[in-house]
Amino acid sequence: MTRRVQIHVATSDLTEQWVIFAQGALRISARELEIEMDLVHENITKKVKAIQDQQPISKIQLTNEVAEIFEKWRRGIK
User: Are 61 and 70 in contact (CB under 8 A)?
Assistant: First the structure.
């Protein structure tokens, strides 16, 4: 069974890009990598927020004041 791995290299150096292409790897510029990482981070943040918004904080409707008191009790804060 042959396993094929595709390597991506992040560099903005033109000489390194030519070497990378010659070795069969793919390249992405440092700027493109930064943009891609920002998009990934943004997507993860949105998904986490959506999951958190779907989950009720409490099954019992509490005022903010009572919820704060309970949270302090839970944490052992007086």
Answer: no
In a domain, 34, yes or no: yes
* Residue positions counted in the chain: 78
d(CA 56, CA 59): 6
pTM confidence score:
0.53
The per-residue pLDDT for range 6-31, each reduced to its tens digit, is: 788 888 888 988 888 888 888 888 89
Percent of the chain whose pLDDT exceeds 70 = 91
Domain count, the chain: 1
Look up residue 18 and give its two tokens.
């030519």
Range of the domain at 62: 8-75
Q: Is residue 1 part of a domain?
A: no
